Write the structure tokens for this entry.
Amino acid sequence: MKKRLVLVYHPDYLIHTQGQHPERKERLEYILSAYHDQELDKIIDLHEPDPASIADLQLIHDPAYIKSVEEACLAGRRSLDMDTYLVPESYRVALLSAGGVLAGLKMIMDGDSDRVFVLNRPPGHHAEYDQAMGFCLFNNVAIAAAKAFKDYSLQRIAIIDWDVHHGNGTQHSFEEDSRLLFISTHQSPAYPGSGNKNENGRGEGEGFTVNLPLPSGCGDAEYELCFKDIIVPILDQFKPELVIISAGQDAYHLDPLAGMGLTDSGYYMMAKSLAAVADRWAGGRMLLCLEGGYHLQGQAGAVIQVLNAIGELGLPIPGNSPLTETTARFQDYLEEIKVIQKKYWKL
Ligand SMILES: [Zn+2]
């Protein structure tokens, strides 16, 4: 059956921006113009969300931290830390950003859509309980997952974070919770430095955090091995009722902040294999949320290929990047991660 795909977007997402900072409004503008160029506006609706409520933010964040972000904006502060800038309207835009993911969740859970891609900013996966980090103010995907547990009584949610940086904030939000399986692929060593392969969750949540720190230079072939040998088999054992993706396109080969080698084809492959997981276990329910991605044109093209995969749009699929010599050495590397994961999953 053809999937009902919706995009969530709000024009105010462009207000939070600062000159040539890599996390700037042009990222979304490029994605939107690619959406129009491909004439996807004729087949995929854009849905405008409401802001998240403070109560929803408090599912994940410290009330005092939430207040402090609002006050910092009111006081005209220009940043919360070295990386995370503010403009006077950033607090309001961040509420709309979290609201975007909640709107997507509602559409999926109400049965109005199978797949939703939220084109929001600022991003969220680095944001911690009481701290902004790495361009992120509030943890959008974590808030959506917490809301899905609370209001929709889901028992098993998977968050797959393919952003090139480790989703530290998301991991820490659910580290002790066996209802949430968190899987992250990320370049290592790289910012923020967490996401070691031995970080597997704690207490009740042990085994439900899966980290795949990858050496720089990994491309389509290496990521495909990760998905085929580790990520999909684990997801098939976990059987998620909802698949959430922290979709950052900064593992793209031209990204100025990272050193990975994914092409459009790699993004198509990752999205396709997770869509199949959603179809097998989650009634097709798939919620994607933008994170990083800083090569303006590249990240926009990658998003189009993700839409192509999850919405079965039938756009031409680009060819795979050639196998690299990294791939042979990479098999050994992957084996080490498998040895750790075999403690918890059949691989
Ligand atoms: Zn990133």
Observations:
- The mean pLDDT is 96.
- The beta strands are 5-8, 45-47, 115-118, 157-161, 180-187, 209-214, 242-247, 286-290.
- The radius of gyration is 18 Å.
- Residues 90-109 form the longest helix (20 residues).
